[in-house]
Design brief:
Blueprint (H helix, E strand, L loop, with lengths): L2 E13 L2 E12 L2 E7 L3 H8 L4 E3 L4 E5 L1 E7 L14 H14 L4 H17 L2 E7 L4 H14 L2 E5 L1 E2 L15 H19 L5 E3 L2 E2 L7 H14 L4 E4 L3 H11 L3 H7 L8 E4 L5 H10 L2 E4 L1 H7 L6 H6 L3 E4 L13 H15 L7 H4 L8 H8 L1 H7 L14 E5 L15 H11 L5 E6 L2 E5 L1
Parallel strand pairs: 1-4, 1-5, 6-7, 7-8, 8-10, 9-11, 12-13, 13-14, 14-15
Antiparallel strand pairs: 1-2, 2-3, 5-16, 16-17, 17-18
Helix pairs in contact: 3-4, 4-5, 5-6, 12-14, 14-15
The protein binds zinc ion.
Zinc ion binds next to strand 6.
């Protein structure tokens, strides 16, 4: 049994509009948080004294929950930061499908995935929901890499069989073989995780244009039968949104629902173009919008109506959408989510009257953004993390605000709210001193 206590200045956001700041002592036993007491109290002293391994973080260090990336494409890692010049449908066929197809060679997966997972951990991403490629072997290597490096993850073998929505060099042979491979991958990943619950399979129809009706329906049945979570894309761009109406006569959201894929905790990447009635359906089913602020700026042709989605009761979390998202860490995209929401609210065309330029009540603040990447995302994905509270797993990040090369200054003059805002807007991977997943230190600077 491993146990320790840690005293630290903690930032966390139990709700979208509430920042909790203050010094606490946290007790961790076998990865689970068993006690949290306010520092300086008798209870905190007792907790520390009972611990054989008590650690104290400095005044200029802060402890936060680990950050949760609800959507990214592992085989697109080499492409991240490039290839942003084409619209979504052309981008897939020109750059992305050929790159993903190269993971048929296990040596490519062995070269790329350890670097990706280590880099994400170094950016504070303690949980990642990965889309892999269609390949069984490369998908298993990704899951093994997450286990080896100690990252919490969902790993999804991508299913895609549509004869015109995918290229002939990169697709499942047919729906039956794609569904079989998805079923195998659920068993494979469960075996790789070996009962720890750290790395889990997730059923992954790429998106409606890449899948036949038979594939979508078969994967819906597989989800129902096995209780495995589902992830896919939904109404990302004008093209994808309109495609669904032409093919199914319904919205993308309604089509996914009809195929049994819109389930509790189903992760829907983007969803920028969903209608209010689609958001209501997403909320009713308990599904999740994985909001990808930077990727959306390049590929989605719109900014997600985030406050509206939250007000309608939809679950929403944050995601990088690597390799269409540019910025590596989901923590660093909190600032981008705030910025793009402001742009939606204020508008972009100065030739229009200010009142007619933007969308009222569209902006979020840094507290809501932080919640989207921690407690909100954890609840959305059904994971016992996201807050440093008793009963949750200890997934946490230590920021060192005096780090060499850092840009966060004058902290002694700041109150907690300003310290928090500086952290969220300014901190980068160079400010991260240590990262913990499930009570295990998985990254140290
Ligand atoms: Zn994606």
């Amino acid at each position: 049994m491993s146990s320790f206590t840690v005293e630290a200045d903690r930032f966390q956001t139990p709700t979208p509009d509430h920042l909790e700041a203050g010094r606490v002592v946290i007790a961790v036993v076998d990865g689970e948080i068993t006690g949290v007491e306010r520092a300086g109290t008798e209870a905190a002293r007792a907790l520390a004294e009972a611990s054989a391994d008590h650690r104290v973080l400095g005044d200029n260090q802060v402890l936060t929950p680990g950050f949760i990336d609800l959507h990214l494409h592992a085989p697109q890692w080499q492409q991240n930061g490039t290839a942003l010049d084409l619209p979504l449908d052309e981008w897939l066929f020109t750059y992305t499908f050929p790159l993903e197809a190269s993971f048929a060679d296990r040596a490519v997966a062995e070269a790329v995935y350890p670097d990706l997972v280590a880099t994400l951990l170094g950016h504070g991403t303690t949980t990642a929901a990965y889309l892999s490629s269609v390949h069984d072997e490369a998908t298993a290597i990704l899951a093994e890499t997450c286990v080896a490096q100690g990252q919490r993850a969902f790993v999804g073998r991508v299913a895609m069989d549509h004869p015109t929505g995918t290229p002939d060099f990169y697709r499942d042979h047919d729906a039956v073989s794609g569904i079989d491979a998805s079923r195998r991958s659920i068993t494979d990943i469960a075996a790789i995780d070996a009962g720890r619950g750290l790395v889990r399979p997730i059923i992954t129809p790429r998106f409606a244009p890449a899948c036949t009706d038979e594939m979508l329906a078969g994967l819906g049945r597989l989800a129902e039968e096995t209780g495995t979570l589902v992830q896919t894309h939904c109404s990302e761009s004008d093209w994808e949104h309109n495609y669904a109406f032409e093919r199914f006569g319904t919205s993308d959201t309604e089509a996914l629902d009809a195929f049994g894929l819109l389930r509790e905790h189903t992760l829907l990447a983007h969803a920028n173009h969903v209608r209010p009635s689609d958001i209501d359906l997403i909320a009713e089913r308990g599904a999740v919008i994985a909001h990808c602020p930077i990727s959306n700026a390049y590929f989605a042709n719109a900014v997600l109506p985030l406050p509206d989605a939250l007000a309608r009761g939809a679950r929403v979390g944050l995601a990088t959408d690597i390799g269409a998202g540019v910025r590596v860490g989901v923590f660093q995209q909190i600032h981008d989510a705030v910025t793009f929401s402001r742009i939606r609210q204020d508008g972009v065309d100065a030739r229009k009257d200010p009142d007619a330029r933007g969308v009222p009540d569209a902006a979020i603040d840094t507290v809501t953004g932080f919640w989207l990447a921690t407690a909100g995302a954890a609840e959305a994905a059904g994971l016992p993390v996201g807050l440093l509270e008793p009963g949750r797993r200890f997934d946490a990040v230590v920021f060192d605000l005096d780090a060499p090369g850092g840009v966060i200054r004058h902290l002694a003059l700041d109150d907690e709210a300003r310290r928090f805002e500086k952290l969220v807007r300014l901190a980068g991977p160079h400010d991260i001193a240590e990262v913990w997943v499930d009570g295990v230190s998985v990254h140290r600077r």
